[in-house]
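#dry-run=false #mode=assembly
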Amino acid sequence: MLSNNLSSKFRKAALAFTASIFLTPYISQANPVNSTGLAVTDDKVTVGILHSVTGTMAISETGSVQAEKLAIEQINAMGGVLGRKIEFIQEDGASDWPTFAEKSKKLLVNDKVAAVFGCWTSASRKAVLPVFEQYNGMLYYPTFYEGLEQSPNVIYTGQEATQQILEGIDWAKSTKGAKTFYLLGSDYIWPRTSNKIARKHIDKLGLKVVGEEYYPLGHTQFNSVINKIKLKKPDVVFISVVGGSNVAFYKQLKAAGINMTKEKPLFLTISVTEDEILGIGGENIEGIYASMKYFQSLPNDNNKGFVEAFKAKWGKDIVIGDVTQAAYLGPWLWKAAVEKAGSFDIDKVRAASPGIELTTAPEGYVRVHENHHLWSKTRIGVAMTDGQYKVVYESSDLIEPDPFPEGYQ
Amino acid sequence: MFAEYTASELTSIFAMQGFAGLILFSVFVLMALGLAIIFGQMGVINMAHGEFMILGAYITYLTSNVFSEYVPTLFSGYFFLAMLLAFLATFLLGALVEWAMIRHLYKRPLDTLLATWGLSLILQQLYRTVFGAREVGVTLPDWLMGSYPLTEMIEIPINGIFVMVLTLIISLGVYFMMFRSRWGCQVRAVVQNREMASAVGINTEKVDRITFALGCGIAGIAGSAFTMVGSTGPTSGQLYIVDTFLVVVFGGAQSLLGTIASAFTISQAQSTMEFFLSGSMAKVLTLLVVVGILMLRPQGLFALKIRH
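#status=ok
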């Protein structure tokens, strides 16, 4: 009985599925704007948004979804892309990497989306990568990450590790006279690769690493490492702790009588954005430094307009972190590439991407490199009690992305 | 390793390290007491224990908001009220869950694992819907976040002391309830022989409900206290569940004293090893030691002598 029931359900589903394939609007192959049968009609184009809105990662990915929707709305208000309004299909990766792969296949194969804006963790990106390469899709990926990757099917709108780290360490040396470093991170690929890059650079500058430590993801007790830091007295504690552990770490630092504003030691992080400070509490993290390309407080006109629009759409109390801004760039970079190519075809968009520049980006000017990452500036901000960073330094030039740094692998 | 430090530096670091171990011990006891009652005394595997803790944390968050909004003058004392409210809320939710779900599963302990796992997912999504996916920042009164400088090097975190005192009070409270009160006597009777207890006139259903709710209530207090040292988000409860079960199982499921001994052993082992090795390595070795001892003593450190 049960098996009969199941098989008839399955047959129905299969029928519906084949019907859906044949019923998609037939698109003429001769049309240069769309010669590969993507979901593009004369007045609209469909894209995909693929982030976790449930599960552990929803904390981080919520901001990215909001930014991508805002960008799409703004582009539509300006008349869309090649005269077509953007519609999006949103899928939930549910903080589960196989789910990400499955949903990306659905977006590319069933929905025929022209581009996908999504993923947050490297694990989710690695899971969808084969799907994008097999079905030739285009993914705009927003998170700062460890590098060591370059796919023809991905545009990386966040910084890769060297852009964040080298600048931060140089700054600590030249403005703060730092000589000794203590590296502390969560135990997975991004902090470990980041610290490898950091250590190599510290050695190159003739400075010293006095300790390197990793704690499991979700670790909540940092008293031992705080004692070790007190004993070793490094000039700089370089931190790549992620997620809920951050809250525990900074609260315990403060409770252990370490005043972060005294800068003895100086705390320099590459993983705490304004988003994380919401959970930590500004009063518990005042005085630490972060090395990133974007802070909500960046004083330029592009950013003022962006922050206002973001608050108007998502609420006045919202905060905007580095990744949220990078996610916002995705739809704009895609629009620019499509218009330069004069077509939605993935291959033409890919060919048009290197050299694409945005002068309207909230972070300032960015340009797409041949290696699909962005030329961008790096800023150092100091955390204030109100949960915002104050920018204290900005790199003088755009920093070239270098996802495969010499000798760091 | 220690050649480059002076004797006084080393003394103070070891003193602080010992203190860190004690804080960890208190945190473990506080985490595990509620589960020891539920799992140990009732045989219910409550996978939603962490979510009950986080409910306590959210209640604390709400209380702090209400205080800073309406009675800012009393803000420094809100934490005590918050803990009480956290206890009440989780106690009531525990009683409800017991009535709706757990009481039908007493004969099937493995099914409680699945049912409470489902409950934990439901609660997580509920928190996400109500409070948003992002973590919330619980503002603490200044006196709780300070530290007391004992010497040049040694700083005593006030919230560490607070957690210790709280753990002591709650442990004593549980002890008196379980071993020095009429109700505790009934609980232990029900645990040891349900039918016989029922036959001599003990209302086993009521005892079950209150015991379960009490375990959840203690989890709520723990969650409230942990807003001082940890994060409050929809999935933060997951951070505690593994350690909690580790402590309870290692201590011997049916012994509250075992839970305390086990929390002490694990916390001291872990904080000592964390000092000499890296954090991840210490965790792995701690787990290996626990697994090794459990292979030799499957019943855990302490076991009740009951004729089955």
